[in-house]
From TrEMBL, chain A:
This is cAMP-dependent protein kinase regulatory subunit. GO terms for cellular component: cAMP-dependent protein kinase complex; cytosol; nucleus. Tetramer, composed of 2 regulatory (R) and 2 catalytic (C) subunits. In the presence of cAMP it dissociates into 2 active monomeric C subunits and an R dimer. Signal peptide: none annotated. Keywords: cAMP, cAMP-binding, Nucleotide-binding, Phosphoprotein, Repeat. It comes from Clohesyomyces aquaticus. Belongs to the cAMP-dependent kinase regulatory chain family.
TrEMBL record, chain B:
Pfam families: Pkinase (PF00069). Its EC number is 2.7.11.11. Keywords: ATP-binding, Kinase, Nucleotide-binding, Serine/threonine-protein kinase, Transferase. SMART domains: S_TK_X (SM00133), S_TKc (SM00220). ATP binds at residue 123. It is an enzyme of class 2 (transferase). One of its GO terms (molecular function) is ATP binding. It comes from Clohesyomyces aquaticus. It catalyses: L-threonyl-[protein] + ATP = O-phospho-L-threonyl-[protein] + ADP + H(+); L-seryl-[protein] + ATP = O-phospho-L-seryl-[protein] + ADP + H(+). This is cAMP-dependent protein kinase.
Length: 461, 405
């Protein structure tokens, strides 16, 4: 019985190394030699496999999975089979870099893991981990991972970038754009409100945005059954809410609507009054995940992405510019750079108070600074029975709280419903550091550079 | 917009003025699609240009972030060439594809025998597709950002850009190691030292982009990070990069798993989105997949934030600081900027200066047979032969948008 040629090659190489190095600790030398060989062979293998295993695979395609607002996905089958394998691997997996000695043990056992060539995971060697290889592996330390909750059905393919239309608020201000408005009855308005209430994309809207979005929804009568409102695979531009009628949902496993009697694919559900579909289209340009067909005469409300995003953008843009404008008026903050002002504007938090609310109270420790965004308020001082001042939109108060912990010098009470933009001292310091440092920029005695500078560093210059 | 374009027209490689003065260039008025009946002067200019391209790396020494930001004479790269054409390059193999672009490994067609082994990555964009997919603005941003950041040790170098009548070209340095994505998926996850090393190089990239250039990158993910011959990272694909400076921007773009909350809500976003994505990236390095995922993309955006970090105990504090919904509390965006990230305990073993100067090899050094080895890249379908023509009204309407390319 002859020795395997690979073994003979390794021994020959080792003999050469021994002759050359003449080591004193022969055993250690051999151990090091084999460890080095093992690492380099695994790294080689890793790369060669990577080189050879991607012929025509899904890697190069844009295979962003699902995009399916209805829960079931055309790729669910293959993802499940992948999940099983990944979980198995989890058992004996230690965190490893490809050049480490613990890496790719299982790949060594099975140098051609091509059995799952048609699955979404077919391009990845890690899928080949099996019980056989785990037995062959030396027992590794148990992983600290929480297996129960570890999300293991992740799609391992390259992820496609997404984008929406370029939106530019500067031009929209010039256009004097106002969102489209479509009259609705109070009943319709309430039904729509309820229909989108649970929808994530609508949950962050303020009252004004919400009113604009609901106003922009446009009625779309569907005169008869059998009309395909959206087609799987098409580019999506509209989101729909069902006013009345009913629609069936079909998914073709190929990922798009095909010609022929079975082109729709399988029916996976239906949607009736108060339901909605196509919401991903409000975010970016993505292929439709399903085909929606009317099953009777129906009515829809439709909203397109550009309108939706422009409503959100315009109100955010206006609010930021308004805040920046207000901030410019605050002497304490006059030395902020435009960049810093924009950061503070971004951090301002909007709060609403009903009429008669004491927003700050004389004697309290001040923590936040306020700008009156809308409404009006009055200023009171102890011992004076009339208001000492009145605040209107754009006025600010409590700014000394950014500077020190001195008690509030007066109370401010709202005289109408008010909206304020507010920022705490902590928030300010987190972004820009202590406000004293910012004020100092304006103070010539601290700036340094001229004759009576107090800055010791400036003297040497 | 055109006025904001910097450094775009000089074709004199070694004299790269930030003024962008067209008169600098003897060939500035040459139409980009001049045909093969070139004048001898034109031919000479092309030959000169190709010789400079062949040797662009000879002058390469790591520039400091300030030198790059100055955009001064130290740089020999990043210009818009009026003389180069596609047939100055031999297309060897596709390295990657996108919806409107394809990146090729190319070899320089040079009359100098010693320069014929010079390889580059050439990104080719069809004007028709760019217009059809409404990506004109993004492509212009990409070219302009790449031009001003050229020279950074961890960002792909745009050696030159040029165009012909129907395509736009970006000539980039070839990064033979392939995508970090491939290594990560193959390794399942990176160990902590590897993750720290890569994360540190990304921090240096973001620090530079944000604080020196005012640029938000907006598409950070392992697919967009390549490994070079020495195992260092190169950030590629600046399709969504934008000079934002102190103004917020609104166009939704990125990759679903990496989108910051403020991008999803359309409340205006800036460079802080990259710090969010960086947190997701570190998580994905350590865990093997990003924290938010669902077959249905809408569900990704609905997932509760802050995220659970039980899988990444070592980097928990760093990631939770980065992946903070409130941008006024997000690490990287708060006081100190990138410096605050660099001084985080998770990076305590990093020597940032040595890192920037590439003093050590990366944790994975690719095995290469030569400078043109493509074994680390996947195979891609050949380009479809049918192609929509670019011309007529479309050209009249859009060509001025590409003028500075």
């Amino acid at each position: 019985m002859s020795l395997p040629p690979d073994y003979s090659n390794e021994i020959t190489a080792l003999n050469r190394e021994i002759l050359k190095a003449k080591p004193s600790d022969v055993l250690q030398f051999c151990a090091n030699f084999f460890l080095r060989r093992l690492e380099s062979q695994r790294a080689e293998f890793l790369l060669s496999q990577q080189h050879s295993s991607h012929k025509g695979g899904g890697m190069a395609e844009s295979t962003f999975p699902g995009s399916n607002p209805f829960g079931t996905s055309p790729s669910a089958g293959s993802a499940n089979s992948g999940m099983h394998r990944v979980e198995e691997e989890e058992e004996n997996d230690t965190i490893a870099s490809p050049t480490q000695a613990t890496f790719a043990q299982s790949d060594m056992e099975k140098p051609a893991p091509q059995q799952q060539g048609d699955s979404t995971f077919g391009n990845f060697a890690f899928g080949s981990a099996s019980s056989k290889s785990s037995r062959a592996m030396p027992p590794s330390a148990p992983s600290a991972m929480d297996h129960q909750s570890f999300p293991s059905n992740y799609n391992m393919n390259r992820r496609t970038s997404v984008s929406a239309e370029s939106l530019n608020p500067a031009t929209s201000a010039n256009d004097n754009w106002t969102p489209p408005y479509h009259q609705k009855s109070a009943d319709q308005q309430n039904r729509l409100k309820a229909a989108v209430a649970g929808n994530f994309l609508f949950s962050h809207l303020d009252d004004e945005q919400s009113a604009q979005v609901l106003g922009a929804l446009q009625e779309k009568p569907i005169p008869t059954k059998g009309i395909k409102v959206i087609q799987q695979g098409d580019v999506g531009d509209y989101f729909y809410v069902v006013e009345n009628g009913n629609f069936d949902i079909y998914i073709n496993k190929s990922g798009k609507l095909e010609a022929g009697p079975d082109g729709l694919g399988a029916k996976v559900g239906s949607v009736g009054p108060g339901g909605s579909f196509g919401e991903l289209a409000l975010m970016y340009n993505a292929p439709r995940a399903a085909t929606i067909v009317s099953s009777e005469q129906s009515t829809l409300w439709a909203l397109d992405r550009v309108t939706f995003r422009r409503i959100l953008m315009d109100s955010a843009f206006q609010r930021r510019r308004m805040y920046e404008g207000f901030l410019e008026e605050v002497p304490l903050l006059s030395s902020l750079t435009p960049y810093e002002r924009s950061k503070i504007a971004d951090a301002l938090e909007t709060k609403k108070y009903p009429s008669g609310t004491t927003i700050i109270k004389e004697g309290d420790v001040g923590e936040s600074f306020y700008i009156l965004e809308s409404g009006s308020a009055e200023v009171y001082k102890r011992g004076v029975d009339k208001p000492v001042n009145r605040y209107k939109k754009g006025d600010y108060f409590g700014e000394l709280a950014l500077l020190n912990d001195a008690p509030r010098a007066a109370s401010v009470v709202s005289t109408s419903e008010v909206k304020v933009a507010t920022l705490g001292k902590n928030g300010f310091q987190r972004l820009l550091g202590p406000v004293e440092g910012i004020m100092r920029r304006n103070d010539p005695s601290k700036a340094g550079g001229d004759g009576d500078s107090v800055d010791p560093l400036a003297k040497g210059a | 917009m055109a006025a904001a374009v910097r450094n775009t027209v000089s074709s004199v490689l070694h004299h790269h003025h930030s003024s962008g003065n067209r008169e600098d260039s003897p060939h500035a008025n040459q139409p980009p699609d001049s045909n093969s009946t070139d004048s001898p002067a034109m031919e000479r200019a092309r030959d000169d240009e190709k010789q400079r391209l062949a040797h662009w790396e000879d002058h390469k020494s790591p520039l400091s972030p300030d030198q790059i930001a100055d955009g001064g004479d130290e740089r020999v790269v990043g210009h818009s060439s009026r003389v180069l054409r596609q047939d100055d390059f031999e297309l060897i193999k596709t390295l990657g594809t996108g919806t409107f672009a394809r990146v090729w490994l190319v070899r320089l067609n040079s009359s100098q025998p010693e320069d014929q082994n010079k390889v580059f990555a050439l990104k080719i964009l069809r004007k028709v597709d760019v217009i059809r997919l409404k990506q004109v603005e993004h492509v212009r941003n990409e070219r302009n950002v790449l031009a001003v950041v050229a020279g950074h040790p961890f960002i792909t170098t745009m050696v030159a850009s040029f165009q012909d009548h129907d395509s736009l070209y970006m000539l980039l340095d070839y990064c033979p190691g392939g995508e970090v994505f491939s290594y990560l998926r193959r390794a399942r996850r990176f160990n902590e030292p590897t993750s720290q090393f890569y994360a540190a190089e990304i921090v240096l990239i973001l620090e530079f982009l944000h604080e020196k250039e005012g640029v938000a990158y907006r598409d950070l993910k392992p697919e967009n990070i390549l490994i070079d011959a020495e195992g260092h990272l190169k950030l590629v694909d600046f399709g969504f990069a934008k000079k934002v400076e102190n103004r917020e921007t609104y166009t939704l773009c990125g990759t679903p798993e990496y989108l910051a909350p403020e991008v999803i809500r359309n409340t205006g976003h800036g460079t802080a989105v990259d710090w969010w994505a960086f947190g997701i990236l570190v998580y994905e390095f350590l865990v093997g997949q990003p924290p938010f995922w669902d077959q249905n993309p809408m569900k990704i955006y609905e997932q509760p934030r802050p995220l659970s970090l039980r899988h990444v105990p070592e980097a928990r504090d760093l990631i939770s600081g980065l992946c903070t919904v409130d941008t006024s509390k997000r690490l990287g965006n708060i006081k100190g900027g990138a410096t605050a990230v660099k001084s985080h305990a998770w990076f305590r073993d990093i020597d940032w200066d040595a890192m920037y100067k590439r003093k050590t090899h990366g944790p994975i050094v690719p095995h290469l047979r030569g400078p043109a080895d493509t074994r680390n890249f996947d195979e891609y379908e050949p380009e479809s032969a049918e192609r929509e023509a670019y011309g007529g009204e479309m050209r009249e309407k859009w060509d001025e948008y590409f003028r500075d390319f």
